[in-house]
Amino acid sequence: MKVIGLAGWSGAGKTTLLTRVIPQLQKRGLRVSVIKHAHHAFDVDVPGKDSWKHREAGAAEVLVSSSQRWALMHELRGAGEPRLPELLAKMSPVDLVVVEGFKREPHRKIEVYRAANEKSLLFPDDPGIVGIATDTAVETTLPTAHLDDIEAVAAMMLKSAISLEDVLAKCEAEG
């Protein structure tokens, strides 16, 4: 299993880019999973539904299953937010895990940069940035691809991805 991240400021288009890249990766015969970081409270549950009621009642975990999918919700209940290695350990084996967000973790990342966002680039200060997907010219020796060149972005992600074991070792070494 290999891992690559997409990092960038809010509004840069990480999710939009990823939803365009996943089908390209699938065309190459790869099974892809995603770990997405959220900076705010979020809910995958619908208030009033049974699973929501179970979670609201205090259940530590609620697993919902049907013939179409299953989902496991784990409440932290005051515990610290899990780091990337802990979350990666929960993933089923696939060819590639794309980590969206987690820009403070030391794994390899492709920066998603949109000029209209009017934010600074992450790459000069983040040694984990190994490439840039952007809609503007960027002075760098790092590989770059245009946001609309989905094949090039997918190729850059695959070339930059490293094994799960290497990601875990890097995270452990950094802290």
Gross morphology is globular
Average pLDDT metric:
91
- Proportion in β-strands: 15-25%
Which consecutive residue ranges, at least 5 long each, have pLDDT under 50? none
Distance between the termini: 22 Å
Rg from alpha-carbon coordinates: 17 Å
> In the CATH classification, which architecture applies?
3-Layer(aba) Sandwich
**Helix/strand order:** EHEHEEHEEEEHEH
Indicate the percent of residues in helices: 25-40%
CATH class: Alpha Beta
How many separate domains? 1
**Biggest sheet details:** 7 strands, mixed
Instruction: Tell me the number of strands.
Output: 9
Count of helices? Answer: 5
Oligomer: single chain
Give the helix/strand class.
alpha/beta
The CATH topology corresponds to Rossmann fold
Spell out the CATH superfamily. Answer: P-loop containing nucleotide triphosphate hydrolases
Essential attributes:
175 residues, alpha/beta, Rossmann fold, 7-stranded mixed sheet, two-stranded antiparallel sheet
Write up what this structure looks like:
- The protein is an alpha/beta fold and 175 residues long.
- The protein has one domain: 3-Layer(aba) Sandwich (Rossmann fold).
- The protein has 5 helices and 9 strands; from the N terminus they run E-H-E-H-E-E-H-E-E-E-E-H-E-H.
- The strands form 2 sheets. Strands 1, 2, 5, 6, 7, 8 and 9 form a 7-stranded mixed beta sheet that branches. Strands 3-4 form a two-stranded antiparallel sheet.
- Helix 1 crosses helix 4.
- The mean pLDDT is 91.
